[in-house]
Amino acid sequence: MTARHTILVIDDDPAMRDSLAFxxxxxGFAVTTYETATEFxxxxxxxxxxxxxxxxxxxxxxxxxxxxxxxADAVKSPVILMTGHGxxxxxxxxxxxxxxxxxxxxxxxxxxxxxIREALQGQSAKPADDTAKREAETxxxxxxxxxxxxxxxxxxxxxxxxxxxDLGISPRTVExxxxxxxxKTDVRSMSELMRLAIAAxx
Length: 202
Description:
By secondary structure, this protein is an alpha/beta fold.
């Protein structure tokens, strides 16, 4: 029998903690939950951590601050952030700081499980930075100049309306460009697109 991966869940909502603990347990993971990032940091040395799933907005230390703290302390565990719709800019900033992924609430169970599995695989098969950059640039090579402009706006955490204003186009046109970006780069989620853009240095 193989050892179960240990997943830490940090969320100040008790119902969300219980729900995620149950979901991860029935899918074969060992789970520990914490109400705040500060509480988790007090127990950081208690054992091996394979992946951390944290809300981004919490009392005290935020998910973004947690990612920066873990990086400063050289903690290698991948961090996935759960984010509300208005927190995408924060989540992108956290990915730049070292988070491996973010998922927008409300999300379906499979989206979270897929993000965790990809984070665990990524730890064992991480390409060198220059290789990842080349691969990302190749996947972005087919984008038109205007599609790149929209992508830069998304990486900056701007909403469609702001990107539209900046580029002098309608919000509906931005939506069309966003859809084109997903198809051309062959990604399944906004977080995957952001990861690609960040790897390419956009």
